[in-house]
Design goal:
The complex is a heterodimer of chains A (about 375) and B (about 110). Chain A has about 375 residues and is α/β, with parallel strands linked by helices. In chain A, helix 4 runs parallel beside helix 5 and helix 8 runs antiparallel to helix 9. Chain B is mostly helical and about 110 residues long. Chain B has one domain: BFD-like [2Fe-2S]-binding domain (Arc Repressor Mutant, subunit A, Orthogonal Bundle), CATH 1.10.10.1100. Chain B has five helices and two strands, in the order ββααααα. The radius of gyration of chain B is 17 Å and the shape is globular. The chains are: A alpha/beta (about 375), B mainly alpha (about 110).
């Protein structure tokens, strides 16, 4: 199979990249390992604000449909239930649908594999009933299953707190939010206020000593400032954040760097979202954990750069477009309290430009006043 | 924490086994994997990589940025061997195994 552009991953970043690329006339192929497109948006029922300006404020599930519908009139081919399993020596991508392996020749590749949730170890964490907070969200919003009745949430990032809010609506009693640090990880004042108003106990400087039960989790021992407390619990949700999925990048020989603010190990990339592997680009959470706005904009940025490199956009137009997208990304990531993410992203790009002897970009000096 | 706590669910490797491997000189996830089989089960280290890296970091007092990502290999997902080599259409896919395929095998299939 041959295509101008292959996009690996049909989540928000991949879909937005496909739209941008195909609007310039680029023949685009999207492969998605799941049975439908939309990625994590498919279970995000919360209203997403701070989206890029071409999108209205909407629920995640609606946004997934919006993105898919936008592609319907364009030259975009989608292969569902297809997974990248490797590369050939000549650079072709090996894609499997479970029956056969298909080599795909693409002039350019955008990898938008997203991120995976991190686990946390404590005695009993392998018991049924202990899951990641994202798994609980999938159970509620996609499968319409109540994940448990009495829950403990381990970790206090904004995503965890959002799900805690939803637990209340779904009749799940949250018996506490456990945070090992001395303050909450989330800085989202509105959610924190509402959690406190609901009277959900916040255990700072705390950790789970163990979870026990026969066949499933039944009891959890909590250590709160050195004092232990036993609770009857049937659901423990681990919300320790997410890290970029790196396998495809490693197979394509991309170089990596460590940026804790971006989720740990991340592929290196330039201001054009190009990785160190020839003709491979990156976007979305794989390029550093961010908000939906950042996910969509990096997808668009990668596609603009692909359009330029394939001659569908001239250098001047592409540079202008990139500059305006970076400014928008800067504004979104700064106002959404992701300033540290944006700074880490810029530091990564700057380092990479220096290491790879790429031209420095004027975009490195984006200042706050421009928002 | 109880040293018998499982870290790699697929292969049932516990903290004690990982710490013993570190004592033997293991200092990356891949070292631990070679010694203990940690990360070699069906999930292919998707859950335990960062957990093990954190244990190494705590045990050796090194920052996580010094521990390095693990080596990821093809095929990236659980794949039936027949999908790679079974039918005629995909017989050229032997190079997916380029790391282990012999020179002769490659030319024969190219």
């Amino acid at each position: 199979m041959e295509t101008d552009l292959l996009i690996i991953g049909g989540g928000p970043a991949g879909l937005n990249a496909a739209y941008e690329a195909a609007s310039h006339g680029i023949e685009t192929l999207v492969i998605e390992e799941s049975f439908s497109m939309g990625g994590q948006l498919r279970q995000q029922t919360q209203v997403l604000d701070k989206l890029p300006k071409q999108f209205e404020k909407q629920r995640g599930t609606t946004l997934a449909r919006t993105l898919i519908e936008k592609l319907s009139t364009l030259n975009v081919k989608v292969l569902l239930k297809h997974t990248m399993i490797g590369t050939y020596q000549d650079g072709r991508i090996g894609v499997s649908n479970g029956v056969k392996t298909i080599p795909i020749t693409a002039k350019r590749i955008i990898v938008t594999t997203g991120a995976a949730e991190e686990a946390s170890v404590f005695p009993g964490w392998t018991l049924p009933g202990v899951m990641t907070i994202g798994a609980a969200q999938i159970l509620m919003n996609r499968e319409y299953v109540q994940p448990g009745k009495n829950a403990l949430v381990l970790g206090s990032n904004t995503f965890s707190l959002e799900i805690v809010k939803q637990f209340k609506e779904m009749g799940v009693t949250v018996r506490g939010i456990i945070e090992s640090n001395s303050e909450l990880i989330s800085k989202h004042e509105k959610i924190i206020k509402s959690i406190k108003k609901d009277g959900i106990p916040l255990y700072l400087n705390s950790y789970i000593e163990n979870a026990t039960g026969v066949g499933e989790v039944q009891k959890v021992t909590l250590n709160h400032n050195g004092i232990t407390e036993e609770m009857n619990i049937d659901l423990v949700c681990i919300g320790k954040g997410v890290a970029p999925i790196l396998e495809p990048f490693e197979i394509m020989n991309c170089s990596f760097t460590y940026q804790i603010r971006l989720g740990g190990w991340v592929p290196q990339y330039s201001i054009s979202m190009e990785t160190s592997s020839p003709s491979a680009y990156i976007a979305g959470n794989a390029a550093g954990i961010t908000s939906m706005g950042g996910i969509l904009l990096t997808g668009q940025l990668a596609a603009v750069s692909v359009a330029e490199s394939l001659g569908f956009l001239n250098e001047k137009l592409a540079t202008e477009k990139r500059a305006s997208l970076w400014k928008e990304l800067h504004c979104i990531e700064t106002t959404a309290d992701l300033r540290e993410v944006f700074n880490a992203r810029m530091a990564l790009i700057k380092d990479y430009h220096e290491e790879a002897n790429l031209l420095p970009s004027s975009l490195f000096d984006l200042s706050l006043e421009e928002c | 924490m109880d040293k018998s706590t499982i870290v790699c669910r697929c292969e049932e490797i516990n903290i004690d086994e990982i710490e013993s491997a570190i004592k033997m000189g293991a200092h990356t996830f891949d070292d631990i994997k070679r010694i203990t089989r940690c990360g070699m089960g069906p999930c292919q280290a998707k859950i335990c990589t960062t957990l093990v890296q954190r244990i190494i970091s705590e045990y050796t007092d090194k920052p996580l940025s010094d521990i390095g990502p693990s080596r990821m290999r093809m095929p990236l997902k659980l794949t039936r061997i027949g999908v790679l080599a079974g039918n005629k259409e995909s017989s050229s896919v032997i190079s997916v195994f380029s790391e282990s395929a012999s020179k002769e095998g490659e030319t024969k299939n190219d």
